[in-house]
Write a structure and sequence with these properties.
The structure holds 3 protein chains of 3 kinds. In chain A, the strands form 2 sheets. A 7-stranded mixed sheet of chain A has the order 8-5-1-2-3-12-11, sandwiched between helices. In chain A, strands 4-10-9-6-7 form a 5-stranded mixed sheet. The longest helix of chain A has 34 residues. The C terminus of chain A is likely disordered. In chain A, β2 and β3 form a beta hairpin. Chain A is 39% helix and 22% strand. By secondary structure, chain B is an all-alpha fold. Chain B has 2 domains: 554 residues, Cytochrome c oxidase-like, subunit I domain (Cytochrome C Oxidase, Chain A); 36 residues. Chain B is built from 20 helices and 2 strands. In chain B, strands 1-2 form a two-stranded antiparallel ribbon. In chain B, α4 packs antiparallel against α5, α12 runs antiparallel to α14 and α14 packs antiparallel against α15. Chain B is globular. By secondary structure, chain C is mainly alpha-helical. Chain C has one domain: Up-down Bundle (Four Helix Bundle (Hemerythrin (Met), subunit A)). Chain C has 6 helices and no strands. In chain C, α1 runs antiparallel to α5, α1 runs parallel beside α6 and α3 runs antiparallel to α6. The longest helix of chain C has 34 residues. The N and C termini of chain C lie far apart (54 Å). The mean pLDDT of chain C is 92. Classes of the chains: A alpha+beta, B mainly alpha, C mainly alpha. Chains in contact: A-B, A-C, B-C. Chains A and B meet through α1, α2, α3, β7 and β9 of A and α4, α8, α9, α10 and α11 of B. Chain A: Keywords: Cell membrane, Electron transport, Membrane, Oxidoreductase, Respiratory chain, Signal, Transmembrane, Transmembrane helix, Transport.
Chain lengths: 296, 649, 200
């Protein structure tokens, strides 16, 4: 018995330790999308804690009150089939909770799937983020530059990441800025990201894609728009051009560290969207629909 | 390629691997020598390997499940050890990938599935007062196909290399372009074979439960475990064919160069994910519903009260089974199917919380006004309720699509599904095993050692998995073989490793308990050691071959309780000759040939494939022409057996 | 057991027989799921564009498909006649109809083999595209079922010839007829949703 309590003490100790730590990445948002998800997560934690507490309290009370050692040896528990009202309550309360969370889920999912409020009117900065084993390639069609394993974005502006893959399915994730989305070979996904604070953020592929998966990370640097423009200008003046042969070389499996190029691979190897999407042959086009959906 | 090259393992500079190969070899040799030395081959063959008795098949399933639990558990400890500290180099990336892949596959298909099917095999016919299942021979074949699949999967480790694309095996990663060696072929064939076995189990148990219930047992008078088994097997019959096709497509892609899941030529990599989860989500409920059934039996027994809300328990299982086919998209909310589709699947997923919640409250209300005895099975059930509630509510959190964009593919998800599967399925199976142990072997497992194991397992579980919720929210993706110190995952991962060790100690204690109790436990436990309620306890411990000397006459879902307390006349009539099926070596031989077939297929050894295929046809022909009418156990023999147990029941 | 077994047809006359028939119905529901999965996949791949390979309309030919349909539908009718003959205990007629059924089945398979060879020659193989792979896998799964049925039917005929019509052989024949009807129904789906829809 003593050991039991010792174990429990360790457990509470750890919980206490955690409470004192710095905020967890997902719960420490730096942009409106991640803020929405963080709020939803807090809301669901609170709602769900209520259920856990109710169950725990009921269980504890029942176990203390009705344990055999506490009762008359002659006590014969009654036969109870069930009760309309009690069962009505245990159906209704979960339904109400689920209904509430369904509304939360639907609203918040629509929110994070569209450009965040206040940023929807402006033209987004488009960046293609494509994955290959085990790297991320970022093409800036507007700026005509390409980076590997790092991305610079301007703050307070909607950045539209267009995600696809040169092979395996990967998942593009910057925990502090927005939830993740898959990058796949035969369609392009869209992810709206706004950084409201300058800084450097961790981004990674979160979907297992083989041997080099653990190191499949990139850094996101959010800069004031003017600094972003001068960064682009710098690259135009210093970086090597990206040729098709060079890009094929980059696609070979491995890790490359950070790289910078003039020009993008979109010119010779475009993303699977619009007329380059395999969906297009059949007549119905998912990517078009998503493109539209995306721009309202 | 030289013929024998294909059987070599992809290069590892890993002494551990060779050590394990040697260990496996030595253990196999020891088993063979041991059986030979004690001259048990004949006994083993005639009493176990050829048996069609549902009780023995159930026990064989459970033994295999325990073996697989240790195989998968060793993988788990290796993973926790590798990630216990940042930048660890105990396992390299490739080896780690193989380890977590085999951990998942072994635990789901060869441990959990085998455990629940074993439990159903042993308990269901007893609970409905039947002599055996509807198709005893088919049942033996199911077991041996499962076993062949499990063995095939396990030799991948030493011949040719293990699969390394995760238990979800997503394409194109699992295709030949990114996973060249034979690992995924093993995955396809091992699951295909054992999947066929499972499908047969599904058919068998539906027929059994629909047709073989004792007189008086209407559907609404079935004990709750039988209800859960019926619904589970219905799900099996509807879900497993989807897996069959998905695996067939995977095999064709990998071995015949088709374009189902490739990224060019009209292929579609997401199709695998869809098919896999259309099977995979119902599979979750295939695992959990029988566990719910076990808990219902145990909680009622040790609260010494009838199960509260029988009808709503049944209704909630039916609703869960229907919903289970409508939620698969929540496994890839992040695939980009848009907010509308995600919202719909988010709502269907959360809807499952309602029937599940009803069950939780029904169990609580079963204990209410009861007289609760804290035996080991009951302690697992009591621990199950809060832990499973936590697992369930984190499931609801994951079901909120927008939030899932942050949880998906992280340790938060890993924590969630272990949080439902371990307290849900594993606790239930251990509790069920301890509960039914006297029915299987005629003695009780030691309670003191059992409780030590319980505390290790429960606390080990909490320490292992609760920290993962936190590291997940802190941005730790799952399936990473290592992480940097700067990430800050280190301390909590160390706690997880410590928890894994406690879990391991707990499971070792369970095995020790078996050994200890086998040697020292008293054998005079009688037929009703737990003061139980449902029909399976109305026969003897251990159960005689024919189950019930006289077919019982049932009046309620707690027929045995009514017999004990309310004077219900359970056994009307007198002892007659009993017709029983004959043992047969056909099933094990057939499954053995299937094993050879699949093994040759994995390695493209076409001559072997053709020969084995001829063997399969031969077995089917033999079966078609075979005449086997079974045998009778004579009245005198039954009376003698019953006398030994102290009077007929 | 309380049922009066004299009033039941031979194939239902024993407990085992009734159990076999129920079990087979459950098996057929699993088979329905199997084919449903194939059909669903087919609809996904056919709507997706066909990669570098041909589309359905370019390779489907009506005459062989019509012949196949005719042969299989007729065989479904003749197996029904065989079961009817069994019910009225006309063993010779029953075997006759079963032989006709199997011959029609063999005819169906020959045309299907011709069809496959044709596809191969015009460059629509298993490897061509996601669409052809699904098409040929669906047709192939059905064809494999018919092939298995042929051998199964032959075994049953041999057993009736050797042992006469009894509870066991009647049970097998009846279950075989269920299987055969099922394959016919699946073919109607294939005919309507793959061929006709593809050619329209």
């Amino acid at each position: 018995m003593k050991l039991k309590w010792a174990y429990l003490a360790i457990l509470t100790g750890i919980a206490g330790l955690l409470a004192g730590c710095e905020p967890l990445l997902v719960l420490n948002p730096k942009g409106p999308q991640a803020e929405t998800t963080a709020n939803v997560i807090w809301l669901s934690i609170i709602t769900m804690s209520f259920i856990v507490v109710v169950v725990l309290v009921m269980l504890t009370v029942i176990l203390f009150k009705y344990r055999a050692s506490k009762q008359d040896p002659d006590y014969e528990p009654p036969h109870i089939e069930g009760n309309k009202y009690v069962e009505g309550i245990i159906v209704t309360i979960p339904i109400l909770i689920v209904a509430f969370l369904s509304v939360v889920s639907t609203i918040s999912t629509h929110q994070v799937e569209s450009p965040p409020e206040g940023y929807a009117e402006d033209e987004p900065v488009v960046i293609y983020a494509s994955s290959s084993n085990w790297k991320w390639h970022f093409s800036y069609p507007e700026q005509d530059i390409e980076t590997v394993n790092y991305v610079f974005i301007p703050t307070n502006q909607n950045v539209e990441f267009r995600l696809y893959s040169h092979g395996t399915i990967s998942s593009f994730w910057i925990p502090q800025l927005a939830g993740q989305k898959y990058a796949m070979a035969d369609m392009t996904n869209y992810l709206n990201v706004v950084a409201e604070e300058p800084g450097e953020y961790m981004g990674r592929n979160s979907n297992f894609n083989g041997e080099g998966f653990a190191e499949n990370e990139f850094t996101v640097t959010a800069l004031a728009p003017s600094e972003f423009d001068s960064w682009v200008e710098d690259i135009h003046n210093t970086a090597d051009p990206l040729t098709e042969e060079k890009f094929e070389e980059l696609l070979e499996p491995g890790h490359l560290g950070q790289m910078t190029f003039n020009g993008t691979h979109q010119e010779f190897k475009p993303a699977p969207e619009g007329e380059n999407s395999p969906h297009d042959h059949g007549g119905s086009s998912d990517s078009e629909e998503e493109g539209e959906h995306h721009h309202h | 390629m030289d013929f024998f090259d294909r059987f070599t393992i992809p290069p590892h500079d890993d002494p551990m691997l060779y050590a394990s190969i040697v260990a496996i070899g030595l253990v196999s040799i020891a088993i063979v020598l041991g059986v030979t030395y004690f001259k048990k081959w004949g006994y083993l063959w005639s009493e176990w390997l050829t048996t069609v008795d549902h009780k023995r098949i159930g026990i064989m399933y459970i033994i295999s499940a325990l073996l697989m639990l240790f195989r998968g558990g060793a993988d788990a400890v290796m993973m926790r050890l590798q990630t216990a500290v940042p930048d660890n180099s105990f396992l390299d990336a490739q080896h780690y990938n193989e380890v977590f892949t085999t951990h998942g596959v072994v635990m789901i298909f060869f441990m959990a599935m085998a455990f629940i099917i074993g439990m159903m095999n042993f308990v269901v016919p007893l609970q409905i007062g039947a002599r055996d299942v509807a198709f005893p021979r088919l049942n033996a074949l199911s077991f041996w196909l499962y076993f062949a699949g499990a063995m095939l999967f396990n030799i991948s480790f030493v011949v040719g290399g293990s699969p390394d694309a995760g238990w979800t095996n997503y394409y194109p990663l699992a295709g030949t372009e990114f996973s060249e060696h034979v690992g995924v072929n093993y995955y396809n064939w091992a699951l295909q074979i054992s999947g066929i076995g499972t499908l047969m189990t599904g058919i068998n148990f539906i027929a059994t439960i629909m047709k073989m219930r004792a007189p008086g047992m209407t559907l609404m008078k079935m004990p709750m475990f039988t209800w859960s088994a019926l619904i589970t097997n219905l799900i099996i019959v509807f879900a497993f064919p989807v897996l069959t096709i998905a695996l067939l497509m995977g095999t064709l892609d990998r071995q015949f160069f088709t374009n189902f899941f490739t990224t060019g030529d009209g292929g579609m990599d997401m199709m695998w994910a869809n098919l896999f989860w259309i099977w995979g989500h119902p599979e979750v409920y295939i695992l959990i519903l029988p566990a719910f059934g076990i808990y219902s039996q145990i909680i009622a027994t040790f609260s010494q009260r009838n199960l509260y809300g029988y009808k709503s328990m049944v209704a909630s299982m039916v609703i869960i089974s229907l919903l289970s086919f409508m939620v698969w998209v929540h496994h890839f909310f992040t695939m980009g199917q848009g907010a509308v589709a995600n919202s719909i699947f988010s709502i269907t997923t959360m809807a499952i919380a309602v029937p599940t919640g009803i069950k939780i409250f029904n169990w609580l209300l079963t204990m209410w006004k009861g007289k609760i005895r804290f035996t080991t099975p009951m302690m697992y059930s009591v621990a199950f309720i809060p832990l499973f509630t936590i697992g369930g509510v984190t499931g609801v959190m994951l079901a909120i699509a927008s939030a899932d964009y942050q949880y998906h593919n992280t340790m938060f998800l890993v924590a969630h599904f272990h949080n439902v599967i371990i307290p849900g399925v594993v606790f239930a199976m251990i509790a069920g095993l301890i509960y039914y142990w006297p029915k299987m072997f005629g003695f009780l497992l030691n309670e003191r050692i059992g409780k030590w194991a319980f505390w290790n397992i429960v606390i080990g579980f909490c320490l292992s998995f609760f920290p993962m919720y936190i590291t997940g929210l802190n941005g730790q993706a799952r399936r990473m073989y290592t992480y940097s110190e700067a990430s800050g995952f280190g301390p909590l991962s160390m706690v997880s490793f410590f928890g894994a060790l406690l879990l391991a100690i707990g499971f070792v204690l369970i095995v020790y308990n078996v050994y200890y109790s086998f040697r020292y436990a008293p054998r005079n436990v009688g037929d009703d050691p737990w003061n139980a309620r449902s029909l399976e306890w109305a026969t003897h411990n251990p159960v005689p071959e024919y189950n019930f000397a006289i077919t019982p006459n049932v009046n309620s879902s707690e027929a045995f309780w009514d017999y004990k307390k309310n004077g219900h006349d359970l056994f009307k009539g007198e002892i007659k000759d009993i017709h029983m099926p004959n043992n047969s070596g056909w099933s094990i031989i057939f499954a053995g040939i299937f094993f050879v077939f699949a093994f040759c297929f994995v390695f493209h050894v076409w001559v072997g494939v053709i020969i084995a295929f001829a063997g399969i046809i031969g077995c089917l022909l033999y079966r078609s022409f075979e005449k086997d009418d079974g045998h009778h156990i004579h009245k005198e023999e039954i009376e003698e057996t019953e006398k030994k147990f102290g009077g007929a029941k | 057991m309380k049922l009066d077994s004299k009033n039941l047809p031979l194939e239902y006359s024993t407990e085992t027989n009734r159990m076999n028939i129920l079990g087979f119905w459950i098996f057929l529901s699993a088979e329905i799921m199997l084919f449903a999965t194939l059909f669903t996949s087919y609809f996904v791949y056919v709507d997706r564009g066909v990669g570098s390979g041909p589309a359905g309309a370019e390779i489907f030919e009506l005459p062989p498909v019509l012949i196949e349909t005719f042969l299989l539908l007729t065989s479904s009718f003749t197996i029904g006649l065989a079961v009817h003959a069994m019910r009225i205990n006309r063993v010779k007629a029953m075997i006759g109809f079963m032989v006709v059924t199997l011959l029609l089945g063999a005819g169906f398979l020959s045309v299907e083999v011709y069809e496959f060879i044709h596809y191969y020659h015009i460059g629509a193989t298993l490897q061509t595209s996601g669409f052809t792979a699904t098409l040929l896998t669906t047709l192939g799964t059905h064809g494999a079922h018919v092939t298995l049925g042929l051998f199964w039917g032959i075994m049953i005929i041999i057993q009736i010839l050797r042992n006469g019509l009894n509870a066991r052989t009647a049970n097998k024949s009846f279950i075989f007829s269920l299987y055969w009807h099922f394959l016919d129904v699946m073919w109607i789906f294939i005919f309507s949703f793959i061929y006709l829809k593809g050619m329209m």
